[in-house]
Amino acid sequence: MELKHEFIEMLRRLMPDEAEAMCRAIAETEPTVSVRVNEMKGGSAPQDAALVPWCASGFYLEQRPAFTFDPLLHGGLYYVQDASSMFIHHVISQLIDRPVRYLDLCAAPGGKTTAALQALPAGSLVVANEIVPSRARALADNVMRWGSPHAVVTSNAPAQLGRLTHLFDVVATDVPCSGEGMMRKDADAVLQWSPALVDQCAGRQREILRDIWPALRPGGLLIYSTCTYNRHENEEMLEHLISEYGAEPVPVPIDASWGIAPAVGCDLPCYRFMPHRTRGEGLFMAVMRKPDGMRQPLRSKKSPSVTSIAVAKSVREWLVNGQDYELSQQGDDVVANPKIHADVVSVLRSLATVIYSGVTLGTVKGKNCVPHLSLALSSALDHTALPSCEVDYATALAYLRGEAIAVDAPRGPVLVTYSHIPLGWANNLGNRANNLYPKGLRIVNKSSPDHAPSVVGTQPQSAL
Question: How far apart are CA 117 and CA 113, in angstroms?
Answer without folding.
Answer: 6
